[in-house]
Design brief:
Length: about 110
């Protein structure tokens, strides 16, 4: 019998209709939340460890990573959160013009490759 893989936190949340609706409507803000959740799911640290290393109460981290809370987190806090999971936080304003957007992507790729 094939062993069933446990659902990730994100997969479990996506089964909830309210979460799925919010995800679809607020994809941009969820993108950042999902990135942090995925990094935390790697199993290298618990949410409590993450909060301690970030220097923020666990309740605040939990709020930031749920219910669109990341929108209220300051840029320095998001940057600290990224640093704790050994990542770079790169806030970028992308032009809507496809050609100009491609130029920004190319510059980012050269800068962070």
């Amino acid at each position: 019998m094939k062993k069933r893989r446990a659902a990730s936190l994100f997969e479990s949340e996506m089964r909830k209709p309210s979460f799925r609706r919010r995800f679809e409507v607020e994809r941009e803000s969820f993108a950042l939340e999902v990135q942090f959740l995925n990094l935390l799911e790697s199993g290298e640290m618990t949410l409590a460890d993450f909060a301690r290393r970030t220097g923020v109460p666990r309740a605040n981290i939990t709020r930031d990573l749920s219910q669109q809370g990341i929108r209220n987190a300051t840029l320095p806090r998001v940057s600290r959160m990224a640093e704790v999971v050994d990542a770079d936080f790169v806030p970028v304003i992308l032009p809507r013009d496809p050609k100009k957007r491609r130029e920004v992507f190319d510059r980012l790729q050269r800068a962070y490759a």
